[in-house]
Amino acid sequence: MPMFVDTSPPGHCIFCRLVAGEIPAARVYEDALTLAFMDMGQVNPGHVLVATKRHAATLLDITAAEAAAVMQTAQRVARAVQAVFDPPGLTLLQANGREGDQTVFHFHMHVVPRHAQDGIALTWPRKEPGAQVLQDYARQLSAELARGNAQ
Is pTM, for the whole model, over 0.85? Predict the structure, then answer.
């Protein structure tokens, strides 16, 4: 992730100010729930951010309608990026919390055109806990979903 961290004081979210038109942005697309705009820290030409218009810090704070709208906008923008810049690959990236590498605490998704050796590394150490552990994780998550608490 980029080294940029939003240092705006509480209540002055940089993306909220951008949505409100208080600060300039290279806007790409807008609808009732989302705003797509060029990332100032372009990794590759066509790097776009898709944000919720309503302030919500993470994926866990947005509504189901907002989640659907962000993905629909991201797909629409990705098709435009593909048509205009013709990258050989695309990465969608969405981070939550400091430990998840989130740097601006307003829900957003990156639409990143990708090229060989473009400097982006999405790797992690592979941990293979075994089939029984995975089955236990799945059981716990399924039980939580069945209780309806994970909505």
Answer: yes
